[in-house]
Amino acid sequence: MAPKSSSLASAVLLLIAEATAQVSNAHVAFTTLQEWYNPSTGLWDTAGWWNGANSMTVIADLAAVDASIVQDAIQIFETTFSVAPSVNPSAGIEKNITAHGIMQTTYPAGWPDDTIVATADPTNSTSWLDGANDDAEWWGLAWIAAYDVTGNETYLNLAEGIFNQIASGWGTNCGNGGIYWETTNHYVNAIASELFISLAAHLANRVSDSASTYIAWAEEAWNWFAATGMINSEGTINDGLTSDCVNNGQPVWSYNQGVILGGLAELNRASPNQSYIHSANTIAQAAIAALADSDHVIHDTCEPNCAPDATQFKGIFIRNLLLLHRASPHDLYREVIEACATSIWANDRDTSTNQLSIDWAGPYVSSANSSTHSSAMDALVAVISV
Ligand SMILES: *[C@@H]1O[C@H](CO)[C@@H](O)[C@H](O)[C@H]1NC(C)=O
Ligand SMILES: *[C@@H]1O[C@H](CO)[C@@H](O)[C@H](O)[C@H]1NC(C)=O
Ligand SMILES: *[C@@H]1O[C@H](CO)[C@@H](O)[C@H](O)[C@H]1NC(C)=O
Ligand SMILES: *[C@@H]1O[C@H](CO)[C@@H](O)[C@H](O)[C@H]1NC(C)=O
Ligand SMILES: *[C@@H]1O[C@H](CO)[C@@H](O)[C@H](O)[C@H]1NC(C)=O
């Protein structure tokens, strides 16, 4: 008996040691991320406005599983809430797709340091809108993540305000639906519409007196999305539609495979229907087949030159794969999350600075920035929960 119980005990100890190492790696990543945090802009230097929402989200997600950083996270939420609207890049932001299919957000000259304006009221959702609908939706999800950690209704109210303003722009170009990329650029693309589904579904689970309204929005938007043709014959999602409303064949970016997974998992929680889980599993498995290398590490086709936007994408995929894994556990999802986190730490980290870069399989690409780093941190946080 003794050998058996002692080998059980050592297996348990090994598991505890692994879990401790995972939390400790995520802590190191958090400390490193904060070296880029600029309390006078409420954003993370070296990356853009919408990336800031994603840095805040990964911090909130870590705080949700690690009580020891909650006080730090609350401080960050409060600072970003009060000062980020003063660097909202609205006047002059522009989004384009280059000839190579790379997304490209351009900011006003001198942004953000030279364009600080008097702080607008952060409780007013208009202060968070910059004309790019996806940007505002990222902030909506970020404030929901902050609400989940703090229970602070100010953040949930802001997310609702953002959603309602975006909903007022529900499109008419393609199949009477969808959210345009920008108020002035009516490209019907996957990201703005997927984020809309996810935001509606997240709100449905948190705002009980309007749950049915948010469920109805999420269902309408998902039914529209599924019928557009953005999901291709392989089951993955291209970037968007042509002006004639057919799949434009632009790259299968990891974030477009990811956001819908979290959206459908949240929608299923608000209004259970196995078809949501079935669709999410189909997309997730097609995406892994398309984007993972033979070691299960996720890539985007632009590596290593993914600036300025696609540096953020893979972490978004993993964050949302975890939401699906919680709703519908699958060995493959656990393996992918573990492989990414392990490889990032071993192969994609500058061991002198602990900065995390763009190619999760390595070798480390110099230099990293708050976008590559926060994106990789998503995997280090996700692995704590699988
Ligand atoms: C909620 O968040 C707001 C904005 O950061 C802050 O001013 C307020 O003190 C928070 N409320 C509580 C109860 O912590
Ligand atoms: C983006 O595309 C628009 C046309 O859709 C064009 O007018 C504008 O010059 C482009 N901006 C950049 C920065 O390439
Ligand atoms: C929110 O800000 C916008 C733009 O400054 C303003 O027009 C609107 O009246 C404000 N809404 C509220 C409720 O204060
Ligand atoms: C589940 O969702 C699918 C796809 O949206 C829909 O066709 C079906 O009617 C739904 N089932 C129920 C029981 O609501
Ligand atoms: C962030 O770092 C990656 C990896 O080196 C690089 O490709 C990208 O250009 C950097 N982003 C910016 C905005 O400089």
Strand content: under 5%
| Arithmetic mean of pLDDT | 96
Distance between the termini: 31 Å
Helix-strand pattern? HEEHHEEHHHHHHHHH
Instruction: From the alpha carbons, calculate the radius of gyration and give it in angstroms.
Output: 20 Å
- Which CATH first-tier class would you pick? Mainly Alpha
Which segments are poorly predicted (pLDDT under 50) over 5 or more consecutive residues? none
Portion of residues in helices?
A: 40-55%
Instruction: Classify the fold: give the CATH topology.
Output: Glycosyltransferase
Q: Please, how many domains?
A: 1
Count helical runs: 12
Strand runs, count: 4
Anisotropy-based shape: globular
Order of the strands making up the biggest sheet = 1-2
The biggest sheet amounts to: 2 strands, antiparallel
In terms of structural class, how would the helical and strand content be classed? mainly alpha
**Ligands, ions, cofactors:** 2-acetamido-2-deoxy-beta-D-glucopyranose
Signal peptide: 1-21
Organism: Talaromyces stipitatus (strain ATCC 10500 / CBS 375.48 / QM 6759 / NRRL 1006)
GO molecular function, one term: hydrolase activity
Protein name: Glycosyl hydrolase, putative
Give a brief outline of the structure.
This protein is mainly alpha-helical and 386 residues long. It is built from twelve helices and four strands, in the order αββααββααααααααα.
Would you give an account of this structure?
It is built from twelve helices and four strands; from the N terminus they run αββααββααααααααα. Helix 2 packs parallel to helix 4 and helix 4 packs antiparallel against helix 5. It has 386 residues and is mostly helical. The strands form two sheets. The chain has a two-stranded antiparallel sheet. Strands 3-4 form a two-stranded antiparallel sheet. It starts with a helix and ends with a helix. It is globular, with a radius of gyration of 20 Å. One 2-acetamido-2-deoxy-beta-D-glucopyranose binds next to strand 3. One 2-acetamido-2-deoxy-beta-D-glucopyranose binds next to loops. This is Glycosyl hydrolase, putative. GO terms for molecular function: hydrolase activity. Keywords: Hydrolase, Signal.
